[in-house]
Amino acid sequence: MPEAVIVSAVRTAIGTTRKGTLADTTAEELSTAVLAASVERSGLDPQLLDDVIWAESLYGGGAVGRFALAGMGLEHVPGVAVNRHCAGSLTTVGMAAASIRAGMDRAIIAGGVQSGSLSPITHRRVPGTVDEIVSWFPPTHPDSADAPNRDMSITVGWNTAQEAGLTRSDMDAWALRSHQRAVEAIDAGLFVDEIVPVKALQKDGSYLDFSVDEHPRRDTSMEKLAGLKVLHPEIEGFSITAGNASGSNDAAAGLTLVSDELAASEGLTRLATVKAWASTATDPRRTGMAPLDGIPKVLERAGLSVADIAVWEINEAFASVPVAACKLLGIDEDKVNIHGSGCSLGHPISASGARMLTTLVNDLRRLGGGYGVATMCAGGGMSGAVLIHV
């Protein structure tokens, strides 16, 4: 059985939705930049590319990856859109690895894109009416007061904090460290090799070369975080704030996966090997706890334990998620999100999983190799996880 190896890992810098540098850059443009760089940096002959599996969420349908390929002149390459909400691009990597290991495909680019700034606003007719039209947001699960579709601060952040017994101080401290680590990584140039610059349209009609993550806050502190108002003061003890939650962000990220046989025959550099992947689901009220099911599952599939993992990427949709995982699964906090995550770098939904893996590949290579896991919760009570080896 062939192995699925990663031969390129690329992302854009992460912008802040609606207020940031990528506010007027479309999902198609972000995808094109990453897909073109993925092919170029991999060294793969584009004619050998079999497919693109591209995650998108809240973007109104279509297949953004295929759109980008057609515009790049790669008319022979199909593309498919995947939606597993936040875990979408982790899922694309698992799907690509599965097809390669099954011998069906030899070269696939997997990843995803999020343009929250330009996501379409959808409407639909009210059932039972003739022409009453209302704004509509696709739900992830049946709505309830303790797991509202449109308020993840309750469904993910608060419910996780309650179940895991976390304090606001626990979460604020994690968020502060996330910002500090992200800023340190940016200043040290650790993200430079994984980022492809984007020509970003600005309001005055000019274009700006965007290549540095803009969401981390250099001036945050425990005092500033403690001073933020909770998002639901009417709920007794509520501890979720904008400071211990992820940002709303724009970005794209992708990884080129090929069979080890193709990598050898084409002389491609193997950056990492995809060893295992997993998806899980639970009660939507426990969405933020879903990775605590996904982590043991992906470790079991790889025949490994928590102690075997050198670096973890556990998405900070809310700080409560990685704090809960470390507390309840015995994960060393010093090995988790070592260069920031959702609270600091931001959370470009469908691109986040591929962003995490891209950073994970580079971190493991800098550290001399080892096993790494990227995992996250996803709307509706789901999780995704991918385990790699460098």
TrEMBL record:
A Pfam family of this chain: Thiolase_N
Residue positions of the active site: C86, H347, C377
The EC number(s) this enzyme carries: 2.3.1.9
Keyword tags: Acyltransferase, Transferase
EC category name: transferase
Domain Thiolase C-terminal: 269-389
Highest taxon in the source lineage: Bacteria
InterPro entries in UniProt: Thiolase (IPR002155), Thiolase-like (IPR016039), Thiolase_C (IPR020617), Thiolase_N (IPR020616)
Domain Thiolase N-terminal as annotated: residue spans: 5-260
GO molecular function: acetyl-CoA C-acetyltransferase activity
Family stated for the protein in its record: Belongs to the thiolase-like superfamily. Thiolase family.
Official protein name in the record: Probable acetyl-CoA acetyltransferase
